[in-house]
Amino acid sequence: MNSSTPRILLIEDDASIRRFVRLALEDEGWQVFEAETAKRGLIEAASRQPDAVVLDLGLPDADGKSVITELRRWSQLPLLVLSARDHEGEKVAALDAGADDYLSKPFGVPELLARLRAMLRRRQLVGTAGVSSTQIAFGAVTVDLATHEVRRGQEDVHLTPIEFRLLAALIAGQGRVLTHRQLLLQVWGPEYLDRPHYLRVHMANLRQKIEQNAAQPQYLMTELQVGYRLNLKPEK
């Protein structure tokens, strides 16, 4: 097995779905480990050290969100949730618990592979760039997290303290979807959790300053009814 081959842990109690996902990933040349329960999944995650985890929420011995919470105590492995629970509340709860992405059942192989590749790319970018670096670049935008200087091309961009904290939170998310709750907590604090309109207003202002076309953003992306993410590598 090539050392660069992605190693994926699949935690899913439905044997037919496990087989479907395993075959799809193995067709890509990826290595797959399987677990049918939450308990076994956590053991496999610790012992196999996979590159990413695919997790079903409806496990026989525990809710999948508890697996996410436990895993996040000691690991930042990319984690994709697969679930038949497709309403927004479940997506938000899973993302708040620490999932990186959410895919509703039924799903297609191309979308599953695309989301896993995106998560693995983000992990690689973090590994090569180094999370300790204070300078971040995406497109024509450069951000210095230490000096709070922002430039778009050759022009200085003036951000308010709130706008800078919002941008810094999205950068720290490393391309993950951050829920409204997560951003309100990080940028404003717990007393502002019931004021999502603050987030909408400041995100609109930030887009006006960062994006070439605020009406068609390339970098500051909305995940409808869930939150926002920073798109580090938009499609050409």
TrEMBL record:
Keyword Phosphoprotein: yes
Limits of the Response regulatory domain: 7-120
DNA-binding region: 133-232
Name of the protein described by the UniProt record: Response regulator
InterPro entries: CheY-like_superfamily, OmpR/PhoB-type_DNA-bd, Sig_transdc_resp-reg_C-effctor, Sig_transdc_resp-reg_receiver, WalR-like, WH-like_DNA-bd_sf
OmpR/PhoB-type domain residues: 133-232
Domain of life: Bacteria
Modified residues (4-aspartylphosphate): D56
